[in-house]
Each structure stands twice: as structure tokens, then as C-alpha cells.
Queue: 2 jobs
Job 1
Amino acid sequence: MATYGTAGKKRYKIRYKNVALLLAILLIIILLITRGCSALFGKKENKSNPEKDTPPLSTGDQQEGAPPADGLTNDPTSQKYYSFTTVTKTSADLGSGSLVLVNNNIKFLGSVSESELDVVREKKNNAYSVKDYTVMVRPEMMEALNNMLLDFYTVTGNDGILVNAGFRTVEYQQELYDAELAETGQETSTLVAQAGYSEHHTGLAVDLTTNFNGERKQFDGTGDYEWIMKNSYKYGIVNRYPAGKEALTMIDNEPWHFRYVGIPHATAMQQYGYCLEEYIDFIKNYTIGTKFLSVTTDDNAQYMIYYVPQSRDSDTTNIYVPVKDRNTKEPYPYEISGNNIDGWIVSFLFKEGDGVPNVIGPDEDGEPVVTSAPEGDGAESGTESGTSAAEE
Ligand SMILES: [Zn+2]
């Protein structure tokens, strides 16, 4: 019995040890589960609730740190002013939109089919002419070009602008590049972009030249044409390769090459004196979590602009867009453009303009300006001298 007794005591001792061990293990397991769960729930909450009013406070993703939207401030550049909805983009969208940055180092990620483009010859007004039916641009550039060149004609009475080039295929760009190297004997070109690295692939760029009675001249942006250099931003168009920015654009000054970026962005680039390379970089200072860039256009419309980096762990990125009405979730009118590198630029119309574009006034002699496009179709001479056909 004593043996049993001893054995019994021993068993008890062992049991106490086991219990202590078990408790310790249990405690560790409980700790692990609680931590795991909170991490899990945190993630789950964000994923399962994409239409949440406010950006998550802290999710570990790129939009962390945004304050709750409670109308806590009168400052519309602060995210506290807004509630948000979300729009999802995938990395395939990086190459689409009016702000894609394409240059000698950044290949165009997007693709443009000719069915998306307007034939300038078919859509243009009579204030200018176009090389031939092959010149095509995206509809947003088409509209901006029509408005700008009609106002240019109205102000100056000059209808000598000729649109010499628009969208180019990669194959055609390769031909131009090869021809340029053959002609210059150089190994690279500072005037013609390598195939795939030309803005002309985006359908958002045009080259202008001038045409009077069949005589073509390079568009140099002087004389009457200074008006275009000074006013294009009001139509959302920028001179893409300005003098003084050659080190950034990697292209020589080209007064004839114009690019559509959209009115709020062209206005901001004008106000800050930035070329597109600088602007795309600058806008990264404005994010969900910091504040919006406020831009007031010439017709007193107010836009808010910000950058959303591409998600690092996923092919899709949730983009927070402010809503006008918390109940209906109707967003402010917005546009999202990929930057063709690593994220998206969002712009939304915070306050509508007064609809007065402020571009037409009496000319320098005080003569009243004409108000309609000239009769006829401008000078269409069919053949092209090729003055700047090879230029970027
Ligand atoms: Zn060009």
C-alpha cells in the first residue's frame, strides 16, 4: 500500500507539474490567438468593407493615416472635410489617362486602338487645317484642340495652323527613329523618341506647323502663335518640351509639340512652372493622409488633386474618392489617371467654375473680334512637305 501511497504522491506531483505546464501552454495559445485574431479582424474589416465612409485609420497599406471624415474642418484640402467612397484600379490601368508620363526612360504601358481615336480631319472645325486623314487623336485632345484653335482664330484672325501629326503606332515610330539616326549618323537622338517611348503613342499629343498657301513653316510659338504658348493651359494643353527643361524632358525645346493633360493639371503646371516630369513628381506630396492640392482655374473652378500609390502587395489598388453626399454616396465629379509608373492621380471638381473661359478679348488695336470660324475648310493641300514629320 505504501508503494501505492508513494506512487500516488508521485502521480499527484506529476499531475501538478502537468497542470502547470498545460496552463502555461494554454496561456501562450490564448495570447497567440488573440493577437492573431485582432490582426485578422483588422484586415478583414478593411477588405470586407470597401464602401466604408472613411479611409481606414491604420491598415498598413499605402493609404494609412487618413483622418476620419467628420466635417471637422472648413479646409477642403483636408481630408477631414470629406467622406469617401472607393474606386478600384488594377496595375493594367497604370498606362491609361490624361497624365501618363512617357519619355526616353519611361515606356508607355498603355495601349491605344485606333477605334478609340478621332480622325482630326472629320472632327475639326474650320479655324485650322490638318495634314490628312491619317492624323488621329483621343477625343479629349480633339475637343481641347478645337476649342483652343477656334479661340486662337477668333483672337488673331489667323487660320494658318496645320496639325501635322497625332497618334503614331510603335512601328511607325521605329521607322522615324531609324530614319533620324541614318540621317544624323548618331547612335541616339535628342529629337526623335525610341519606339515605345514616344508620347505620340498615347493619342494625347500633336505636332503643329503652319501653312499659308501651301507654304509650310515650322511652328515656333512666336508672333500670333505666342497666344497659343500663353493660353493653351486654359484648354488642358501644355507645351510638352519647353526651353529650359531639356535636362528633365530629355528632349530639345520643341515649341510645336503639344500634349493634353486636362485643365486642372495644365493650370497647375502653368502656375508652378513645371514640365510634366516635375508635376508628376510634385503631385506625390499630396496624398490621402496628407492633404489635397487645390487648383483654381481661370474660370474660377476649384479642383482638388492628389496621388494614390499603387498597392505594394496586390494587383488592385483601392482609391478613395470624396463623396458630395454622405447618404447617396455620390462622388464629386472626378477623374483618375495612371501616371504610367507607380500610381494614380485623382482630380475632383470641388467647386464649379463660372463658365467664362477668359480667353477671348478685343485684339490689340481694340477691334472687335470675330466670333465664328472662317467659311470653308482651311487650306488642305493633300501633300505633306514633311517639315517636322520626324520630330518628336
Ligand atoms: Zn511631337
Job 2
Amino acid sequence: MAEVRVLSAEDVAQVFTIADAIEAVEEAYRQKAEGKGRAWPMVYEAFEPGVADMDIRSGELAGSGLFGLKLTAWFSKNPAQGLPEIFGTTLLCDNGTGAPLALLNASAITGLRTGAAAALGAKWLARADAKNLLVAGAGHMSTFQVAAVLAACPGIEHVEVWDPMRAEAPEARVELMRGEVEKILSAAGIERGYEIVAVADGELACAAADVIVTITPATDPIIKAGWVRPGTHVSAVGADMEGKQEVASDVLREATLFVDDRAQSVSSGELEVPVKTGAIAEGDIAAELGEVICGTHAGRASDDEITVFDTSGIAVQDLAASKVAYDRALERGIGTTVAL
Ligand SMILES: NC(=O)c1ccc[n+]([C@@H]2O[C@H](COP(=O)([O-])OP(=O)(O)OC[C@H]3O[C@@H](n4cnc5c(N)ncnc54)[C@H](O)[C@@H]3O)[C@@H](O)[C@H]2O)c1
């Protein structure tokens, strides 16, 4: 019999903040670079292509005594029945005994840990004097990207949000986002000055940006050749399945490339299509970000370099983040214990 702690989205939200996510994901990347964290091949199945699918991302975080998985199920017809479009569930297991420890609603963690990944790319690879952030994509995940970069990079003062699918600036979306970002930051006790504005012209916004985060499901790159000025850092986040690519191959070719996981980046991340078409080679990847965090590989080499960090999302992020939520929930008696 195993005692399993079950945590709802509300339980997780009580104990887990953006600051926790940044710390946990940094620790997960570090463990991966030290050989204590491993991401296993993703399992993907489309029940009805373009309508309903699921993926399972699994791995081990030996430094935290864990292995486990996150199952994300996307059923696009659900909202018509009053159900969420996405169900995310994380299972944590003890890597010494195999016993299941916790089952968590992953929704309260996914946005924060995904934002944390992009923010760590900016923290470790952007120029030290970076002030202007462009977030390309104005959907559900974009709020977390803005909040996480603001939390991890104290120098960022000005944020522009662009929706590549709209000719006009996403004013209404940004109005909502301002409140959502402030809520995420204040839950972590972060107070800082910044402004967030909606913009309509992606090319102009790229030319002014020191840091660009892409967070769309684009299959035709939205960041075009010639748009990214020397010295810019790009965190490419949206490409998490085969066929997606947000940054033009020409930009990738002139950039120094960092990834969260080499194998996944070229099998289902931002670099999958450019490697398959021969625009770049897998050997062009400079390092995993964890190697930069550990100091075993250099990060940015000069203020003129373009750096790109591809994060397609790996299980160690979810495991490390969920472990923090689990430990806090145990301490504070939050959640339900089930004997399995
Ligand atoms: N890397 C990770 O760990 C990770 C985690 C979660 C989500 N994602 C990915 O991030 C992306 C965005 O997720 P979301 O929940 O914010 O989506 P969303 O649907 O809420 O928002 C998508 C945004 O991109 C724009 N868009 C839609 N189709 C586009 C296209 N073909 N070209 C350019 N822009 C387009 C939309 O107008 C919107 O602004 C998705 O691809 C999702 O799978 C990645």
C-alpha cells in the first residue's frame, strides 16, 4: 500500500509561486547537466489529429529522489461541454522504492514552470543591460512568460506584447494581462516597476527588443530573417511538437544555440524542422542551458551575439516544481491523502 497525496489546482496555487518555479527549474536543469536528471523520450498519440491528442513527458530527478511523469490531454471539443480543453496530471514517485508519492493537477504548475524556463534563458543568456522584452504570442501562456521574465530579470523595464495572428495591437488582452501579471508577482512577494504595452508591428518590436520570447503554435516562423538585431536573446517556447517552428532558420543559423534537452529539441522542439531540412545541424547546438548554469559551458560570448534558447518542455521541470508543491503541502497539511 502507498500513501499518495492528491493536490488540486487550488491546493497547488496556495503553496507554489513564480519564484518557486524559477528556483525549481534552475535546479532541474542543473541536476540534468550533472547527470542526476534525465528526460525520457516523449510519448505522443493523436486520437483525432488536430482535435484530440495526448502526450506523456517522463523522467528522473535523482538528486531529489524522484521519477515521474506529466500526462497532458488536449480535447478541443471539451469547452462546448463545459469542460477544460486541457487536462494535465503529474505523478511523482520515489526513485528508491518506486512508490507513488503524489498526484497533482498540473495546470497550476505548467504555466509557471514554462515561464520559468524562458526566463532562465533570459537570465543566463541575455545581455546584462537588457531592458526591453517582446513577447510574441498573446494567448494563455503569454501571461506567465511576462511575469516570469519580470521575476527573474530585474533589469527588464518595458514589455511589448504582439499577437502575430492579428493586424492590430492586442489591447484588450494586454489590459487583462496587466492584472494577471501583477497577481502572479505579488503572490511571490515581488514588487517592481515595469510597463506592459500592446503592439501591432512585430518587425518594429523585434528591432527594439533586447529579449524576445516566442509563445505561439506557429508552423511558419513568426520571427523572420533580418528582424533580430545583434545582441538579442530569444527564448523560443511555443514549439513543443513536430512541425512547429517560430524563429526563421536564417536567424537560428547566425545565433548561438542553447536548448533544454538536445534530443527533444531536434525531435519535437524548435530545432526539429531546421535540422530535418538541413538548415542547421544537431552539432550546431552549443550547450544545454544546465551546462551554462553549472559553469561547465560558457553562455553569451559577446554583446553582439544573438543567443537562442529552445525550451520544448521536459519532465524534470515538472518533477522539480511538483516536488516543491508536494513538500509544502505536506508541511502545511494541504491536499488529500489516499491509500492506494
Ligand atoms: N515549451 C513548453 O514547455 C510549452 C508548454 C506549454 C505550452 N507550449 C506551447 O506554447 C504555445 C502557446 O500556447 P498557449 O496556451 O498560449 O496558446 P494559445 O492558443 O492560448 O495562444 C496562442 C497565441 O499564438 C497565436 N497564434 C495561433 N496560431 C498561430 C500561428 N499559426 N502562427 C502565429 N501565431 C499563432 C494566437 O493568436 C495567440 O496569440 C503552444 O504551441 C503550446 O503547445 C509550450
